[in-house]
Amino acid sequence: MEKEKMFKIGALSLAVLSVFLVVQIFVGLKNYSLLDQKFETMRTISVSAEGEVFAVPDIASIMVTVSEKGENPLVAQEKVAGIMEPVLEGLALLNIDDADIQTMSYSSYPYYDIEPCVDYRCPMQSQNEIAGYETSQTLRIKIRDLESIPDALTLFSSNNVTNVSGPEFTIDDSELLMNEAREKAIDSAKKEAKLLADQLGARLGGLVSFSEGGDYYPMANRAVSMDMAMESKAEFAPQLPAGEQKINVSVTLTYQIK
Description:
By secondary structure, the protein is an alpha+beta fold. Among the domains are: 45-55 and 175-219 and 247-257, 2-Layer Sandwich (Translation Initiation Factor IF3), CATH 3.30.110.170; 59-170, Alpha-Beta Plaits (2-Layer Sandwich), CATH 3.30.70.2970. It has helices at 2-42, 73-93, 149-158, 175-199, 226-231, and strands spanning 44-55, 59-70, 101-113, 129-143, 163-170, 204-219, 244-257. A four-stranded antiparallel β-sheet has the order 3-4-2-5. The chain is elongated, with a radius of gyration of 37 Å. The protein starts with a helix and ends with a strand.
């Protein structure tokens, strides 16, 4: 009876040990599989490519500033308004929408009669008297009909606009062009990745990561200087080639290889 009991205990212990060994083997195989899978994911290749699209600008931005002085702020402000009013009326006649005219800054401040330094002695700031006030207003104007730019410059100069900067040529809606350049870059990167995998004697797997960069590069894009704009007259129309711009997108694709 005692022998039978010991036999049963030994058999049960052996069964438990067998189950334990089976579990350990299963866990070991699973860990090996995960390690092998992790190793596989580390086998990758990365390729980079660029896509370029060229387009002619379809919009121009011009900054205009009017500055006037007066004995008090109200007089200076009225002088600025007296110049800006015909300018805005002229822009409306050129079919420039109000939404495309934006005030970038408006300021009014005193200026002083500064006494000169004598014998290396300069008067203190408190001794300088206010000579008057200066008001300045700056507008940013978008012109969508590029052929009307010379007329706009003539409008500014004939109304004594103090400062003209531009035009700066840009592309109004660049998203479609960016998409086109990106598509070219991705297609090129895919072909390069397939070629590289073939040369390595491997098979191309799934895409692991993607990154993108890009920029605009103005090509032969010219802007009129302030002096040219100020010298513009009714009988003179400056030539302002808009040139073209390059939209460049670069991509990097990382693939798993098998």
